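Re: that chain you flagged

S.,

Sorry for the slow reply, it's been a week of failed gels. I finally had a moment to sit down with the sequence you sent. For the record, here it is as I used it:
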Amino acid sequence: MDDFIIEAMNLQKEYGDFVAVDGLDLQIKRGEVFGFLGPNGAGKTTSINMMVGLLRPTSGQITINGKDVHEIDKETIGICPQDLVFWENLTCRENLKLMGDMYKVPGDILKSRIDALLEKLFLTDKANVVASKLSGGMKRRLNLALAVIHGPEIVVLDEPSEGLDPQSRRVLWNYIRSLRDEEGKTVILTTHLMDEADRLSDRVAIIDHGKLLRLETPENLKKEVGEGDVVEMKLSDPKKNEDVIKTLKELEDIISVVELDGRINLRALDAVSKLPRVMENVEAVGARIEDLALRQNTLEDVFIELTGSGLRE
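Prediction finished late last night. Pasting the structure tokens below so you have them in one place:
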């Protein structure tokens, strides 16, 4: 069987003069967590909606398991939207049973599946609680359970961690990994959270302004812009950022220097050894460092290197 479960060829989506998705080509492997990374408005959700048949492209083609996306069985895909979708006046168990019945899941299979999902998503104690009474994190976990109750082959998660506390996020991440590792499902994850994409994705597509900029593993993406360290500094007077960036760019063996959210990000191999020279140059233009941090390369750095701007802008 083909290694690729979804193939998108030259996908284009236009709204009048606005091009939301611009010539997108990509292939998603069977049984991988595939991350769509980009800022809000980059075209992530539009791309996904076309790839699962919810939105017709202006042009281009999508196939799932070799078939046109509009010819596949509806049970093939489970979608967990960013907005919460459930029956507020039903309990968790009733929500899951109703959704399972809608998909015509056999009764004995449905009961065991509901119990398993409630347990895996830490909702067992809330099984008989009305959905409207759940906390925000529990509602989001119920939202996910409803998306997979019918046992889909492909699970689409649109910004699943939006607004979650760290504990709920950890539960969610562990469950996403289990979908791949224990159930062999293909998971498509759209996110603008760097950490989420880095920790969960087997491969990441970085998209901006409707165009695919890179498609690689997180590890290779981080190597792509150099394995250097990143020095983040905040000046006491941000008006001097431009002067400092200009002088730092003249130093030898500096990979890049950019401004992001009022801070200066400098990338260099063995950055620690270069710190004395960096600080001398900063002082030479009459600036003073208020805060300084050294860290390793991240996916956000990759995006900044590719686009010159931050992911959260």
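What I noticed first: The first helix runs from residue 44 to 51.

Talk soon,
D.
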